[in-house]
């Protein structure tokens, strides 16, 4: 059987900050319709990889293709319009804007013209309840939900989630995991999940890659993360 072509195909991706190289030649294929986890110790370059994919970092690559489009040299804006959605580590909602204004910003980034927040409010009812409230007054978990919703309103084909569980209470982590899995099952949304939270990966991912020193070094099945030795070897938890 022929392997399905990757939604996102990365070969030899390099990039860093100023003179400092971080990504040392990343090879990674993200398959359409899957939730793929990327794990690795702090500082190995996971967030840098997400930024290079969305175009926030100067990067070079032998291959960087999304839905058949060559992304090399294109702007973050152009990538968002192609259907790449990025939820950064630390969330970054606009604290003084209301929940609904944050969602409106998400729409303008993705180029979607019609403001219909019904679907995301369906997934995140707390955001509907708080839609006129300043985002800075929400709890960390609610801000994470808003950061995800702000990307979802643009109807992305691929969602890049960078450590969504960081600093969030376990019940909200479970809610977010359930909602993203539901979106994946119902709409075919493809997801790349950078996480340290093994339970969250187990609840969500079909595939797991390990990053070390700016490269993808191996692939694990999520079930292999039940082995403490495997986790100790690949994570600093
Ligand atoms: N804005 C930045 N400027 C300079 N160096 C950075 C910046 N962000 C991250 N780094 C460095 O790049 C390396 C990889 O960081 P990062 O991609 O954030 O790792 P991870 O997400 O895996 O914890 C680290 O050495 C980090 O200190
Ligand atoms: Mg990071």
What does this structure look like?
The strands form two sheets. Strands 7-8-9-3-10-11 form a six-stranded mixed β-sheet, sandwiched between helices. Strands 1, 2, 4, 5 and 6 form a five-stranded antiparallel β-sheet that branches. It is of the alpha/beta class and 237 residues long. The longest helix has 18 residues, at 170-187. The protein has one domain: P-loop containing nucleotide triphosphate hydrolases (Rossmann fold, 3-Layer(aba) Sandwich). The protein has nine helices and eleven strands. The termini are far apart. Helix 3 (99-110) packs parallel to helix 6 (140-152). The mean pLDDT is 93. It is globular and about 45 Å long. Residues 46-47, 89, 162-163 line the site of magnesium ion. Magnesium ion is lined by residues 46-47, 89, 162-163.
């Amino acid at each position: 059987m022929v392997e399905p072509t990757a939604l996102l195909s990365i070969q030899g991706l390099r990039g860093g900050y100023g003179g400092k190289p971080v990504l040392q030649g990343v090879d990674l294929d993200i398959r359409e319709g899957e939730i793929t986890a990327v794990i690795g110790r702090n500082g190995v370059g996971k967030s840098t990889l997400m930024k290079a994919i969305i175009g926030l970092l100067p990067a070079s690559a032998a291959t960087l293709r999304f839905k058949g489009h060559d992304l090399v040299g294109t702007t973050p804006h152009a990538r968002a319009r192609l259907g790449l959605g990025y939820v950064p580590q630390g969330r970054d909602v606009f604290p003084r804007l209301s929940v609904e204004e944050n969602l409106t910003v998400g729409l303008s980034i993705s180029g979607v013209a019609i403001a219909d927040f019904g679907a995301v409010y369906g997934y995140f009812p707390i955001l509907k309840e708080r839609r006129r409230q300043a985002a800075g007054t929400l709890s960390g978990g609610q801000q994470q939900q808003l950061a995800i919703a702000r990307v979802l309103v643009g109807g992305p084909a691929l969602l890049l989630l960078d450590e969504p569980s960081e600093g969030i209470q376990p019940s909200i982590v479970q809610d977010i995991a359930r909602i993203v899995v539901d979106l994946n099952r119902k709409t075919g949304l493809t997801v790349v999940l950078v996480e340290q939270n093994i339970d969250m990966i187990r609840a969500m991912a079909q595939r797991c890659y390990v990053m070390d020193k700016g490269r993808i070094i191996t692939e694990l099945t999520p079930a292999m993360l039940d082995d403490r030795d495997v986790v100790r070897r690949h994570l600093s938890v």
